[in-house]
Amino acid sequence: MKIDKKIIQELSDYLKEFNLTEIEITEKDTKIKVSKNNVSINSQPQIISASTSSTSSAPIPDQNVKSGTEVTSPIIGTAYHAPEPGAKKFVEIGKKIKKGDTIMIVEAMKTMNHVPSTADGIVKEICVEDGQPVEFGQTIIILE
Predict the structure, then answer these.
(1) 104 Cβ partners below 8 Å, 6+ apart?
(2) What is the pLDDT of residues 45-67, one digit of tens each?
(3) Contact 73, 106 (CB under 8 A)
(4) How many CB atoms lie within 10 A of CB 110?
(5) Contact indicator for 121, 60 with CB cutoff of 8 Å
(6) 8: number of CA atoms within 13 Å, CB side?
(7) What is the four-CA torsion angle of 115, 121, 122, 125, rounded to 10 degrees?
(8) How many CB atoms lie within 10 A of CB 117?
(9) Where along the chain do its domains lie?
(10) Which terminus of the chain is more solvent-facing, meaning fewer CB atoms within 10 Å of its CB: N or C?
C-alpha cells in the first residue's frame, strides 16, 4: 500500500489552520485520520500508524490546573447555556446543582443533547461561552 504524504500534510495543515484536534477522510476502502498526536491510515485488512509528535515523552505540567469537580462534554458539538435563545440559563455561577441536573445543551448533527451534571455541587466556573464549539472531554463547568 502506498501512503500519499501530500494528503496527510494537507490534513495536518487543516488541523493547524482551523485549530482542530482531529480530522478524518474516507475514500472507497481507505480511511485517513489525522490528529494532533498521531496519524493513522486504515486500509482493510492492514493498519499502519505513524506518530507526528516531535516532543519528548515527558509529561508537560498544565499551568492552568483547575481545582474542583470538572464536568466535561460527552460529545463534540456546539454548547448552549439555555434551551432556546433568550430563555433562562440552565446554570449560573454560584448556583447549587444536583447530579443529573441539565447543565447545558450540546448540539451535534441538528440534535440537541442535554448534558447532565456528573456530581452535586455549586457552580464555580462556566468554561465555555454560549454558542461555542466544544470537543469530547472538554471541561464545560467546574463545581465546588
Answers:
(1) 79, 80, 81, 90, 91, 115, 128, 140, 141
(2) 444 444 344 333 444 444 455 57
(3) yes
(4) 5
(5) no
(6) 19
(7) -50
(8) 21
(9) 5-51, 69-143
(10) N
